[in-house]
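Appendix B. Chain record.
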Amino acid sequence: MRDHLLPRIASGAMLLLLAACGDRSTLSPGADVGTHPLLVSPVSSLIPTVDIAPAKGWPPGARPAAAEGLAVQAYASGLDHPRWLHVLPNGDVLVAESNAPRQPAKTGIKAWVQKKVMERAGAGVPSANRITLLRDADGDGVAEVKTVFLKGLNSPFGMALVGDTLYVANTDGIVRFPYRAGDTAIGAPAEPVALLPGGPLNHHWTKNIIASPDGRKLYATVGSNSNVAENGMDQEVDRAAILEVDIASGKTRLFASGLRNPNGLAWNPETGVLWTVVNERDEIGSDLVPDYLTSVKGGGFYGWPYSWYGRHVDARVRPQRPELVARAIVPDYALGAHVAALGLAFYTGALLPQFTNGALIGQHGSWNRKPLSGYNVVYVPFREGKPAGKPVELLTGFLNQDGEAQGRPVGVAVDGKGAILVADDVGNVVWRVTPAAP
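Structure tokens predicted for this chain:
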């Protein structure tokens, strides 16, 4: 046997061993979803539950399965780890091709497991560090123009256009660029706006932004630097939070906290309230903790790391903070344990009126749960500004029959014609969802 194959075989054997360990979900499907999820007791284990869907990619001609009455086709393909989407007023679509920045190697079994999980799940590729512009000039639902719009960024993710200025959230700060309608590339240098927590650890690297309706402020998501503050709370300053940034001065303040890893941000079209989707903590069982969709209250505290789903105390955290737990806000809506909800958009288009004012959510998929969860795009109906009913799967089939990930949905957006766009960072595709042909 060749010596260079030994580490790979040993690595694979260890992952198979880990996959054989850990607990399994005992809840009925859907019990951990909705406004009143069933919450079980935490499971304690020295070895975390690991169940990885290896990144496979789509075979030629394959695509996700769309719900009845819907059709899906590739809007753009051949991308490099597309993560996030932003639709410009003229209909052009910006896609952040991005991944985690290079970081110092961590030591220990947990760090090794995390690294192998990410590699196996397709997240180990270098970051392209760019934003690409997609344009469907002839209106056939496929982007025939694909150009590098911005390059030399630092693990970019969120984007926001305010007037003639485009704001981009790198992993360590917000920058801006001048923008003119119709531009297919920007050559101007980045102008710093505000720093965001980064650093050598930077456990959750994705930073999303959304502009306030009046264009005076940006709201930025910053995930935690750990699972449950095991690196110390001094490493969590302004993290597990949504920050408010004054555009004119660049001054930043804490807007809401205790949100382990918020990603998608969207303004509710009926109430004007800010909503987000949050990835909750790991390693206390396949049925805990539900990731969630929630409205965001200014000054609100949502529990992390001291408690989960409101005031359920996490005994692993030291020291405890009962005074914070006592004011922890219960999220509005559970999406299910470990689904990895990332993308969020409220539907306000005319093409698919059955989804009006509801939430579209891209669920990247689990690694700390048996059986696998997520790996789909769902719609949560809303009534009078609040979730009303169980989620409906819009796109499935991202996992094949062998449990391999053909794709993994991330960002979602609504294009200028009302179709739903989905970034797929394993399939390297942006999908477009429309009504099915009669």
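Further analysis of this model is presented in Appendix C.
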